[in-house]
Amino acid sequence: MTQTIRKAVFPAAGMGTRFLPATKATPKEMLPLVDKPLIQYGVEEAVAAGCTEIIIVTGRGKGTMEDHFDRAPELEASLEKRGKTALLEIAQSVSKLAKITYVRQPEALGLGHAVLMAKELVGDEPFCVLLPDDIVDATVPCMKQMVEAFNRTGSSILGSEVVEGEAISQYGCLDCAPVEGDERLLKVRDMVEKPKASEAPSQNAIIGRYILTPRIFSLLEQLTPGAGGELQLTDGIKALLQYESVYGFTYEGKRHDAGDKLGFLKATVEFALKRDDLGPKFREWLKSFPL
Ligand code: G1P
Questions:
Q1: CATH 3.90.550.10 corresponds to the domain 7-275
Q2: Which of 1-5, 79-83, 262-266 has the lowest mean pLDDT?
């Protein structure tokens, strides 16, 4: 019997330099995809996967994230007074999503270091990590698919997809083999963070979705700087391979890199087109747009 996954960690202390100037004073996690901040998509995905405790690793200047998931008494009172019940429901539902706790990462030392900040709050149980930049559009939420894979294996699970050509150098890369009888699982032999494309062991990239066993924390504590001089989560998981099996998981769905300007624009268009309230009019307008 595997342990239940209850907790999800969101590293959200990064400076968002890929999105300047918007992210100079606004956390990149708060940029809205249509009308919802990026991080809310991730939190909703974690909740849909069964998580009840959300741990957000923040840094300086990220206070609006905490306000977003908190109650907003003045706003709620005003909406109630004016009989705006639908909007009131939207405002209140955000603060009811889950129990959310915050921990600060004092210095941006890398993703491995960010996850380590959650050690005490996670404790001795398997947990999810979601990178808020990666938005996964899927019929069954990506993390829910991964929790099901964890329940089958009892092992750490890394969300994975095949990327084309040189793009692999921007990701953690898996040296892996298919698992017989489970078309979505990949047995991980080794892994490397941001390899040169010519040296990549495969085109199987890690995406920003992980389920990790708690042994990872002692390994993250021993990390030394890796790719880009940062303490890399990939290196910590590579160390985990000495003790435990780790699987890649080819999720069903479509990922958007919303931390990148072009990726964000594409995601905005796709999400807007899918909306019942905005989609039809937006589609009409797009058709008439002189390209
Ligand atoms: C991080 C991880 C990398 C992973 C990627 C997924 O990189 O270090 O292994 O493939 O997220 O989005 P970053 O995008 O922060 O450079």
A1: yes
A2: 1-5
